[in-house]
# Entry
Amino acid sequence: MSKIKNWAISKVAKLQTMQDEEGQGLAEYGLILALVAIACIVALTALGGSISGALNRVAGSI
# Structure
């Protein structure tokens, strides 16, 4: 009986550890996504004029 009890305790402990890491991973993915979004916004703001000019030249040549 003690083998079953020890097995059950180890499984519960493993599940709790997995759940803690899963929540932490989700928060990290959220932070990475926010940083990527900010980097894209900054890049588009900085390059917006040149991209617009290039698209206007292409449209004019068509």
Summary: The chain has a mean pLDDT of 81. Helices lie at 2-61.
